[in-house]
């Protein structure tokens, strides 16, 4: 029984590890096509000003300029150690009150829901892994019960 349990747990760990690595690889290298709109890509750039995904190809502080609306054309300050964004709306930006928009600081955390989607995918993969581990454990116990009945 101990061997079967260890075997089941080892298999579960391998499955979960594989699923987590797949989930990490799935969102580790994003490109503009991964975002529904330019505003979603801009929020991601704002959350990661170092631009590890190269969303701001021309370095002007605006990510994925060719993506469809809604647009967020408030430039992200990508200089080393920058924590704030420059509030310089450009042509095409929808601004309710330009005076307020020029002084407003965009949120530091992306509020597009993209990160929540990634978390839900990771949670789903984790649950699949745990379900697989449980299934393997039940099968191992079933086999042991059958062997005991034969004896």
Principal-axis shape equals rod-shaped
Helix content: 40-55%
Topology as H/E string? HHHH
Q: How many DSSP E strands?
A: 0
Whole-number mean pLDDT: 73
> How many strands, which pairing sense, and closed or not: the largest β-sheet?
none
Runs in which pLDDT lies below 50 for 5 or more consecutive residues are 83-91, 107-113
| Beta-strand percent range | under 5%
Question: Descriptors for this entry?
Answer:
4 helices, 0% strand, rod-shaped, 151 residues
Account of the protein in words:
Helices cover 53% and strands 0% of the residues. The protein is an all-alpha fold and 151 residues long. Helix 1 packs antiparallel against helix 4 (114-150). The chain is rod-shaped. The chain starts with a helix and ends with a helix.
Topology readout:
Elements (H helix, E strand, L loop, with lengths): L1 H27 L9 H10 L50 H6 L10 H37 L1
Helix pairs in contact: 1-4
A few lines on this structure:
With 151 residues, the chain is mostly helical. The chain has one domain (2-150).
């Amino acid at each position: 029984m101990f061997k079967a349990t260890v075997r089941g747990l080892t298999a579960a760990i391998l499955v979960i590890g594989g699923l987590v690595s797949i989930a990490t690889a799935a969102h580790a290298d994003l490109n503009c096509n991964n975002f529904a709109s330019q505003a979603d890509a801009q929020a991601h750039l704002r959350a990661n000003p170092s631009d590890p995904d190269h969303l701001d190809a021309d370095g002007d502080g605006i990510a994925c300029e060719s993506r469809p609306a809604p647009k967020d054309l408030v430039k992200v300050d990508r200089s080393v150690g920058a924590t704030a964004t420059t509030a310089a709306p450009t042509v095409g930006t929808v601004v309710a009150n330009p005076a307020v928009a020029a002084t407003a600081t965009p949120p530091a955390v992306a509020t597009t829901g993209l990160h929540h989607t990634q978390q839900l995918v990771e949670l789903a993969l984790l649950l699949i892994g745990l379900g697989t581990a449980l299934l393997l454990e039940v099968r191992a116990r079933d086999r042991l019960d059958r062997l005991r009945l034969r004896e």
